[in-house]
Amino acid sequence: MHYIEILGISATIILLISMSYSCKDRKSKIIMRLMNALAAVLFIIYSIVINAYSTILSNLAILLIDIFYLIKLYRSKE
């Protein structure tokens, strides 16, 4: 298996785990957002290699949303 396929599959697995993560408290929300951000970064790298520009843009947007909510979560006192 080519390394780029491993990267894409890894990103998919991390994304699926983050989406199935139960977010009942602040800590679990942070973990989910971090995992989702990691998956987005991996998908951005994967998309650059395969020249999938729309996927780069969508995952860049997801990454920015995750960063926004992570900052919001870190600033909250819950």
Structural notes for this entry:
The protein is built from three helices and no strands. By secondary structure, it is mainly α. Helix 1 runs antiparallel to helix 2 and helix 2 (26-50) packs antiparallel against helix 3.
Q: How much of the polypeptide forms β-strand, as a percent range?
A: under 5%
Average pLDDT works out at 94
- State the major sheet: none
- Poorly predicted ranges (pLDDT <50, ≥5 residues)? none
Q: From the helix content, strand content and strand pairing, which structural class follows?
A: mainly alpha
Q: For the terminal residues, how far apart are their CA atoms?
A: 45 Å
Rg over CA atoms, rounded to whole Å, is 14 Å
The global form is elongated
Strand elements, count: 0
Helix content: over 70%
Contiguous helical run count: 3
Order of helix and strand elements from N to C terminus:
HHH
Keywords:
about 80 residues; mainly alpha; elongated
What does the secondary structure layout of this molecule look like, with pairings?
Layout: H1 3-20, H2 26-50, H3 53-75
Helix pairs in contact: 1-2, 2-3
Quick overview:
With 78 residues, this protein is an all-alpha fold. 85% of the residues lie in helices and 0% in strands.
